[in-house]
């Protein structure tokens, strides 16, 4: 089947932020009726791709299922753990050089299904270390990226970076944020049981972050 990411956008639909007008979203987002693909395979039953701001790699999960007789195109689904894939959503690159980490299959007398899970290839260098240690003085960010990532097969593409930055800039939303978390302090009764919890908001952001670092070191 052709995967429909979402139904046609209504005029008041705001999938990102209520402050962004729907016409603006329509201008910067691909047509939602476009297909999702891993390499050239597009017949997916479900699609899940997630970029997390605190994680070094994106995650993906695709499933496909069919009923007997098994169609010929099913033979094209020959993805295996370790395969490098490119994922597009609505014609836009969602993950470049992703790596399949898990392939799960299930079938009975009348149906067959496969689920592919994986991560972007940045997962490989993110779980590695620089060997041998080296100095990056007088090197720009792009040069450092090439020096560290090229040997892993993760090629930094400034053009793709610029495309993503330009699309996000049209949303007029902040690229970075930070905030103070609430501190919870338990109060105990004479019997040692929690009687209440006080909520406070510290004023020193740096002190709170250093406290977290000391807690989890």
Number of DSSP helices? 5
Which secondary-structure class do the elements indicate? alpha+beta
CATH class assignment of the largest domain: Mainly Beta
- CATH topology name of the largest domain: Phage tail proteins - horseshoe like beta roll fold
Strand percentage lies at 25-35%
Give me the side-by-side strand order of the main sheet. 1-4-5-6-3-2
Categorize the overall geometry: extended
Low-pLDDT sequence parts: 1-18
Overall pLDDT score: 75
Specify the CATH architecture of the largest domain. Answer: Roll
Question: Which percent bin holds the helix content?
Answer: 10-25%
**CA gyration radius, whole angstroms:** 23 Å
How far apart the termini lie comes to 49 Å
Structure explained in plain terms:
- There is one protein chain.
- This protein has 217 residues and is of the alpha+beta class.
- It has two domains: 22-169, Phage tail proteins - horseshoe like beta roll fold, CATH 2.30.300; 183-216, no CATH class.
- It has five helices and eight strands, in the order H-E-E-E-E-E-E-H-H-H-E-E-H.
- The chain has helices at 22-28, 123-126, 141-149, 158-169, 205-216, and strands spanning 36-38, 46-50, 59-67, 84-89, 92-107, 111-120, 183-188, 194-200.
- The strands form two sheets. A six-stranded antiparallel sheet has the order 1-4-5-6-3-2, with no helix packed on it. The chain has a two-stranded antiparallel sheet with strand order 7-8.
- The protein is extended, with a radius of gyration of 23 Å.
- Mean pLDDT is 75; it is low at 1-18.
